[in-house]
Design goal:
By secondary structure, this protein is α/β, with parallel strands linked by helices. The protein has two domains: 255 residues, Response regulator (Rossmann fold, 3-Layer(aba) Sandwich); 156 residues, Rossmann fold (3-Layer(aba) Sandwich). It contains twelve helices and 14 strands. Strands 2-1-4-3-5-6-7 form a seven-stranded mixed β-sheet, sandwiched between helices. Strand 3, helix 1 and strand 4 form a beta-alpha-beta unit. The chain is globular and about 60 Å long. The N terminus is likely disordered.
């Protein structure tokens, strides 16, 4: 697998913002860093600033990292075409970890030591990031930080890692506790959980348990699946276990193929219980699988399907940030370079994942601007912490601070309407089969 691939956005003067791809051999050092890596300015070069990213670009979860990357690149490309930040363009060193912990650990060390990136960003997944956090902690003396990750798990929001991580999105705990409350209001009392049996799945399930504890009750039944499951897998045992327990709603914590398989199996078995997923699942990728299968079987798999999100709908053109996102995705049509591309995952026109990547990039660029023309890692950190009620154009201002490293708290809810995810305005209708 070719994991060591540097992805560099060209300036507006070159190829109209088309992504360029360059490779370096293992022994070749990066050119013209402004300081020794231990001096605080590693990753800041004469003409560019280098960001490190480890994510799933290939395999069953390819749609997660690929779309997060594409959304960020839409904004970075525009910034670079306009002259960059203080005259420097933004480059992303992206490595594939396949949504597996060990490659993510290796990538993290490589990004910091060999690639000498300025900071890390847009990591994907709880099982990967939780294993990388102790490695990142080792670089606290170099002031290495991680900004805007595609996971809502708790470890990076708590000691001893909180100091080095800036989370943009709301947490899984917030998503799940709010989902429990909304379902409770519709009359649901027996809650089941279906989750990926790893740190991510347990994080979501913990949120369900906390939400139910506020009502003096517990999870009625649990079922799990192994990370890397595919849509074609048979989840009959999980469906039967939850159904026999008399569950009235299932709250899932997983990725789009494994959770999509559960939805498919449940509906094929005639079980019409409401099923929900958290934002990480990859809503559009899961919907595409369910719609395609439904066309083959003549069955609608989207009824009573509810997904929480941490960014607003990409169809809400009343929000200027969403309008900008749509325009730049259309203008630049960012692509994952061939070395990282999974042919089984074609680019998606719009998605909650790419919108989240876009939002992360906006936060990062503002931090770099505030860090000044000769930024250090310490200055960049302070610049991020200076963001107070920063308007992202999404109807929810972002605030960081020395004691606050989560910028947004909003949770949104969506259902499928006419083949697309749409905001829920009527919960009774949303949970009706």
């Amino acid at each position: 697998m070719k994991r060591r691939t540097m992805l560099k956005v060209l300036s507006g003067a070159a190829a109209g913002g088309v992504l360029g791809l360059s490779r370096r051999t293992w022994g070749q050092a990066p050119a013209r860093s402004l300081a020794d890596p231990r001096g605080g300015a590693a990753g800041v070069y004469t003409h560019d600033i280098r960001i490190g990213m480890s994510a799933a670009f290939k395999g069953p979860s390819a749609g997660l990292g690929s779309e997060l990357y594409r959304g960020a690149m839409a904004y970075y490309t525009e910034v670079n075409q306009r002259g960059g930040v203080h005259g420097r363009t933004i480059s992303v060193v992206a490595l594939d970890d396949g949504y597996e912990p060990t490659p993510c650990i290796k990538n993290t060390i490589e990004l910091i030591e060999r690639e000498q990136v300025f900071f890390l960003s847009n990591y994907v997944g709880t099982p990967t990031l939780t294993r990388a956090l102790p490695v990142i902690k080792r670089y606290a003396d170099r002031q290495v930080i991680l900004v805007g990750n595609f996971t809502g798990a708790q470890p990076q929001r708590e000691e001893p890692y909180l100091d080095q991580v800036f989370n943009v999105r709301a947490s899984y705990r917030q998503e799940m506790m709010t989902l429990v409350e909304r379902f409770w209001q519709t009359g649901v009392r027996r809650f089941g959980v279906y989750y990926q049996i790893d740190a991510y799945g347990r994080s979501g399930t913990d949120g369900v348990a906390r939400g139910l504890a506020q009502h003096g009750t517990r999870i009625a039944a649990e079922a799990t699946y192994v990370r890397g499951a595919r849509f074609e897998d048979d989840t009959t045992p999980a469906v039967q276990a939850l159904r026999q327990a008399g569950v009235e709603a299932v709250l899932c914590t997983g990725a789009y193929q494994g959770c999509g398989a559960f939805v498919r199996t449940a509906r094929d078995m005639g079980w019409a219980v409401p099923i929900s997923n958290v934002s990480f699942v990859g809503s559009e990728a899961m919907l595409a699988l369910l719609v395609k299968h439904g066309q083959a079987t003549g069955r609608d798999y989207t009824q009573a399907l509810v997904n929480s999100q941490v960014v607003p709908s990409y169809d809400d053109v009343s929000l200027p940030g969403v309008v900008e996102y749509r325009a730049l995705m259309d203008k630049h049509n960012p692509q994952v370079p061939e070395a990282l591309r999974d042919p089984k995952h074609p680019p998606e026109q719009l998605s909650f994942r790419s919108l989240e990547g876009f939002v992360n990039a906006r936060v990062i660029v503002e931090g770099l601007r505030r860090a000044g023309p000769n930024p250090s890692r310490a200055a960049f950190r302070q610049a991020l912490e200076s963001l107070k009620s920063f308007d992202l154009g999404i109807g929810a201002p972002l605030t960081f601070g020395p004691e606050r490293h989560q910028g947004l708290d909003n949770v949104y809810f969506t259902r499928v309407v006419n083949g697309r995810w749409a905001p829920i305005t009527d919960w009774a209708a949303a949970v009706k089969a």
